[in-house]
Specification:
About 65% of the residues lie in helices and about 0% in strands. The protein has 11 helices and 4 strands. The radius of gyration is 23 Å and the shape is globular. The two termini are about 40 Å apart. The relative contact order is 0.09.
Length: about 325
């Protein structure tokens, strides 16, 4: 990430910015609902899901609005492809949010709900919208991989962040599959967040993630928010560059971000395996702890190796003059 990347902010994708603003307003309204409405749904405040999705979608849309502003669109086809993919992402987020909030207003579950024909239609519409959102994100990822950005650290940060987001988003489709004892066309509930335990049991504060079994929402969350975590880390490196000479080297920043992306991918894999095994996030066994320790050690080694890379030599005016004399 360079100063030129920040200067692209005025060119943010407008539909995505509008969608992000709408999501923020929804999150604020849902927060008010958490305070004013004491209704519970499956043991959770009824406005919890609209609040969490509003915050998540706002961050998602703003991230892509910034990323698309970095693309060097030299042709009309490229501009149309980028604008179209971003617009589809914005519309999909808005539709998904309307369906989730609408079910909350009705006092009904938005996810895995097949109790009535209307609930079934709403959930099926949500599934179709999620698929559209995933493929639109995939299209943006393709555009990011094909684009030539001047700053390689920025380029690879947003590319790898998008790939990790796609992996995280795919867990939404995994959660929609029938859990043990459920049958499509028969059960009122098809799909689950938890693994090894029933949904609606004891959960962590704020997130609601299961504390008694695995929870697929964890890799879903970790993967999707790579879009924010990795660029923010790069922004920190750029901010520290004036104080630390090695961070001023673009090659060092690139290597550090590749290490960070690899570490993030390892964490995503770790929490994914943990969830599938039916293990709570806060209840890791020896195998999980060992794998986590290995990730920490390898990440530290990668960071040290990246920082030990010598900055590119710069010839001083005196040195250049001496070389000319030597000739």
């Amino acid at each position: 990430m360079s100063s030129s990347s920040l200067h692209r902010l005025p060119g943010l994708h407008r539909p995505l910015v509008v969608a992000a603003a709408a999501m923020a307003v929804t999150a604020v309204a849902a927060a008010a609902g958490l305070v004013l409405d004491d209704r519970l749904l499956s043991g959770v405040p009824i406005w919890s899901k609209p609040f969490k999705f509003g915050v998540s979608f706002a961050a998602y849309c703003l991230s892509f609005a910034w990323m698309l502003s970095l693309l060097p669109h030299r042709g009309r086809a490229g501009r149309r492809a980028a604008y179209g993919a971003g617009t589809v992402v914005a519309l999909a987020c808005v539709v998904e949010m309307v369906l989730i909030a609408g079910q909350a207003v009705r006092g009904e579950r938005s996810h895995f709900n097949y109790e009535t024909p209307f609930d079934t239609a709403v959930y099926n519409a949500m599934g179709a919208t999620a698929a559209v959102l995933w493929f639109a994100t995939l299209a943006i990822a393709v555009l990011l991989f094909r684009a030539r950005l001047a700053d390689r650290a920025t380029a690879w940060t947003i590319r790898l962040g998008t790939v990790l987001a796609l992996i995280g988003a795919a867990f939404g489709f995994v959660m929609a599959q029938p859990a043990p004892g459920q049958r499509r066309g028969v059960s009122d509930t098809v799909g689950a967040h938890s693994v090894g335990v029933q949904d609606g049991g004891a959960g962590m504060a704020l997130t609601g993630w299961s504390t008694t079994g695995g929870d697929l929402r964890i890799p879903h969350f970790v993967g999707m928010h790579a879009l924010q975590v990795l660029p923010l880390l790069l922004l920190v490196l750029v901010a520290l560059a004036p104080r630390f000479r090695r961070l001023g080297d673009a090659r060092v920043r690139l290597r550090l971000m590749l290490v960070a992306s690899g570490a993030y991918a390892a964490v995503l894999a770790l929490v994914s395996v943990q969830a599938v095994r039916g293990q709570p996030l806060l209840g890791p066994d020896a195998a999980t702890l060992g794998a986590a320790a290995a990730v920490v050690v390898l990440t530290a080694a990668g960071v040290l190796a990246s920082l030990r890379t010598a900055p590119a030599p710069t010839a001083s005016p005196t040195t250049a003059k001496d070389r000319e004399s030597a000739r």
